[in-house]
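Instructor's aside before we start: the two examples that follow are unrelated to each other. I chose them only because their records fit on one page, so don't look for a connection. First example below.
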Amino acid sequence: MTPRENASKKWNKHNSILFTLAGLPRRLAQLTYNIHFLSTSNLAPPLEMIEELVRTLKEAHKDGIAAWDCHHQEDVLLVPWVLAFLGDNPMASEFASHVGMQGKSFCRACKVKTYDQHTKKGDEDAEIHRVAEFLKPGEPRSKSHTRAELTSQLDSAVKGAPSTVDDMAAQSGVKDKYFAHFVAQLQEAASELQQELQKKQPAKRGVSKSDEVKELLTMLRARMPENIFSPVLDIPDFDPNVDTPFEALHYAVSRQSTEGKETLKTRLSSLDTSGLGISPLRGHTLVQYAGSLVGRDFRAILQVGPAVLHGLIPEEAYEAWVALAHLGPLVFQPAINNLDSYLVSCQYATSFGLAETSPCRFNLRMLLQISWLQQPCGHLSGSTSRNSIYSFILQHTSEDLVQPVCTQRKVSNLTT
């Protein structure tokens, strides 16, 4: 299942949800007619879009879906499971109720932090501890841990302190955008009542102002839906902290600054790419619009980076590019024939890459999760660009985002 977010500066932003049957061979999973459209919107947040889908999944998981097997000529019962959510890393963090890469707890898969009580500036031992923690996966996160943290945040909000939820989220790394909507309602109600109580004495004798606030918030919570946490947490046998494979494409080559842009443009345009199986590079476009590149651009840059950047960036940065060039072919494997051997090679290349980069680059630290997440999800880690055909269709639609895709599906069903 693939939640996609189009953030291109050329088109209106929209979110789309599609799915592919996980059991299909790789060569068939790449075909457009095996990528099925579910929903899209340029207004509704992704977690609201997926709420109805989760309800349908739970019903199908409980009762099954009756179907006719044309091969075996018999009735069958289909029971769906979600293997993984494929999307970029910010979207995966949102689905995992995670604070995101900019938070202190920046990893959605483990509980590593940028700093804690053991790491103080100027303390050599603390810095060594920080680097050691940075270079290895931390304690794994889980759906049960996320639920427990959200329940604690809800209890704190209902007890009269909705404003503490943000601090708790920053400390734990658990931040649910779906839940935040209801917290905002509690916060607004608490603020309004507190302002009223400041102007007059409590209406009830022997009842403090804080007790009145708690009573109001408890009543307001009772009027809300029973479950006010992310619907993703209700998907049967699915853990969004583990089952959202690391999307390596953008994080492997993002935010690498360069100098000598004119020289770089010339080198990119002059480079012979015939041996790489890609079209000639347009140096001006790649450099001028570095913030709006797409998947194929990142793949090309990752391959040619060591050749065109030599002498243009500091030696340390160049060594980092060489390390990423070693890791790139492993990250974007179309198929994995020997998983054990692949994980060993991937771990070595990842360690080499981190050794050549600064520990302050938290996005590159996500590369540590490749070997961890590859084990349950296989070669699903990497890129989601195979769904770009739908982004192309939706980007060129103004009035009705869904109708063109529905029409395409009808035609596909008639011709296959």
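Example two begins here.
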Amino acid sequence: MESSEEKVVAVIMVGGPTKGTRFRPLSLNIPKPLFPLAGQPMVHHPISACKRIPNLAHIYLIGFYEEREFALYVSSISNELKVPVRYLKEDKPHGSAGGLYNFRDLIMEDSPSHIFLLNCDVCCSFPLPEMLDAQKSYGGMGTILVIKVSVESAYQFGELVADPVTKELLHYTEKPETFVSDLINCGVYIFTPDIFTAIQGVSTQRKDRANLRRLSSFEALQSATRSIPSSFVRLDQDILSPLAGKKQLFTYETKDFWEQIKTPGMSLKCSALYLAQFRFTSPHLLASGDGVKSANIVGDVYVHPSAKIHPTAKIGPNVSISANARIGAGARLISCIILDDVEIKENAVVLHAIVGWKSSVGKWSRAQASGDYNAKLGVTILGEAVSVEDEVVVINSIVLPNKTLNASVQEEIIL
């Protein structure tokens, strides 16, 4: 009989400064997991989803960032959610499964019956309680969150084949060269503690192979350049692929939204998805206003309580405004993220753009883009402390920190 008091822990992989290079210039100022989407740090969305898991004992964040970079956030979120959250720094790359195994003693301290493993750069509705129920009904070692995507985009992800009735994972391949399936891995998992035995098995096999190679000097020369450390274990290639079709792994399909947050452009799209989700999960976080006593708010908009917006400004849809921002009279903001201490002056327009910390957009100026989230310059990005002077237009451009623009630019990266 399963005890109703079985504990569950959650582990969120947050990566490190060398991993977030595609997120520059925004990640020059702040660890990517702490960049705000819909007014909340990126990592906050999976963490708050974990709060819905019954009998949640602990949340661990694993990454390569310095502990001091997460200390303040971890402390405040632990108090807010009344769940212990702890940041664990990896000493060296261990791979997605090896990183989990590296901290197995800590993770198993609460003797959990199940362990959730989430990736921080995933944007979805995180149906975690439903995955827990599914995993309990399937049995086996683990359950993977999956989603159907277009045939054209499937190759970018881990493709898999599942039994349509039992939902067992039958085949898994990471970023295949030829089409396998339109079902992809969402990067959200639930495992039993047996996962640690599986990871240890891969590690032991690798050590044995390395020992065998040493016996043959020719083989040693051949493999010296390409051998993988025994402690480096990848979840997809080393665990999911070999265990597929062995009645160990199962799938849970989400019909909801799902995206990967690899670039600043995608962060704007994901901010919109989270704002839309707030309608159902956190309506109190969405702003409202009719343009009389307060600004005219259209669609889903988040405004930090300390931000000041002129009543004649029009804001939305898909706008997130951070702390101490100042929005002037007649300004128009659509599909944008406005970060801390930004000033948008009178009659300026910001459209499909991210305006960095302490930046300003002058009177009658525009910072705008096409809104193609996948294109390199599909979203205009102003880094920290960028000043766009009055009557200047910035279109489809990326501006690195501490620049002053006194002339209009289009489709440029300004270093």
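The mean pLDDT is 89.
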